Amino acid sequence: MTQNRYSDPDCAAIYRAIYERRDIPDPIDPKILVRLLDAAHHAPSVGFMQPWRFIRISCQNLRKAIHGLVEQERIRTAQALSEREDEFMKLKVEGIMECPVVLVAALCERRDQYVFGRRTLPEMDLASLACAIQNMWLAARAEGLGLGWVSMFEPEALKNLLNMPEDSQPIAILCLGHVEKFYDKPMLEQEQWEDRKDLNTLLFENTWDTPCR
Ligand SMILES: Cc1cc2nc3c(=O)[nH]c(=O)nc-3n(C[C@H](O)[C@H](O)[C@H](O)COP(=O)(O)O)c2cc1C
Fold first, then answer.
1. Residue among 16, 145, 149 to mutate when testing ligand 1 (max atoms within 8 A of CB)
2. What is the pTM of this model?
3. Is the distance from the beta carbon of residue 129 to the nearest atom of ligand 1 less than 6 Å?
4. Per-domain residue ranges for the chain?
5. Alpha helix locations (H) across 2-96?
6. Which residue has the least CA distance to atom 3 on ligand 1?
7. pLDDT tens track of the chain, all 213 residues?
8. Going by CA atoms, what residue is nearest to atom 25 of ligand 1?
9. Which stretches within the chain are classed as H helix?
10. For 22-189, which CATH superfamily applies?
């Protein structure tokens, strides 16, 4: 056991939030929202660039317009899925009009000036934003809240709607709220859309596709 290890209960709480975190979303205490945003802001980021920006959508008309964009993309996604179209249309893939808080998580403008850790892998800005959203997701679970990540939208259309700079990029629409019940398993697993892969099939030793012994 290393001296830096958390106590057993603290460790158990971290794993509990990881396993019980669920993607689904009545008013949210503003103090909790600040805590969640602060958790996001303490995520790791490449070169400490902190590329995340969060736009809170408090205007109802804007929320409706965002919902409209998502609905358009939901239909296009269904069409692209061809034989799974009907099955897809039955899934709940967003909660924009029902949830108490909608946030748009975005990458900031002028990211090219950040070279540290991004010279060969510029997408590490996106990885950093994903870490921030994951922090918020886990903190939300610990607070008893659900968070839905919606990625079905045309980014340019959302960027225009929110008056975002040309070189910024909206990445996620986050639907935050209280949930009646957290699913025991991912909803997509429960609805037989996809199964969780066996971890052993994802682990290699030394070279690609060589199973771990
Ligand atoms: C990058 C990313 C994008 C996602 N986009 C959507 C989405 O557009 N709509 C949706 O219903 N869920 C979306 N999800 C949620 C996943 O469907 C969900 O995380 C997955 O099914 C596993 O379920 P769990 O989060 O409850 O464990 C997204 C998740 C991630 C990480």
1. 149
2. 0.90
3. no
4. 22-189
5. 8-20, 30-41, 60-80, 85-89
6. 151
7. 688 898 889 999 999 888 887 765 467 999 999 999 999 999 999 999 999 999 999 999 999 999 999 999 999 999 999 999 999 999 999 999 999 999 999 999 999 999 999 999 999 999 999 999 999 999 999 999 999 999 999 999 999 999 999 999 999 999 999 988 888 899 999 999 999 999 999 999 999 999 998
8. 23
9. 8-20, 30-41, 60-80, 85-89, 124-142, 155-161, 187-190
10. NADH Oxidase (3.40.109.10)
